[in-house]
Amino acid sequence: MSYNRTSIFNNLVQESNNSLYVADEYRTNPLSRQPGGSTIQVKYSDGSIRIYDKIKNIAAYTRYLRNSNKSEILEVIPI
Prior knowledge:
This protein is an alpha+beta fold. The chain contains two helices and four strands; from the N terminus they run αβββαβ. Strands 1-3-2-4 form a four-stranded mixed sheet. A hairpin with a 4-residue loop joins β2 and β3. The longest helix is centred in the N-terminal third of the chain and has 13 residues. 5% of the residues are buried.
């Protein structure tokens, strides 16, 4: 099996450059300021990636994001 390591590396670097960790002060739910829960990575159609931590209910938060965002969500990945 053959693959291009440079291409894979470049894709990972590009994805990392587009990632944004969402700080607590930008979160609206009081539960998101309490310790515990899961971390998710959300990929948007504009190419941006946002990482949210302290998610207590991934399914409910994903529904909230899909209903409230103007940008199309391509993927939600628990990490």
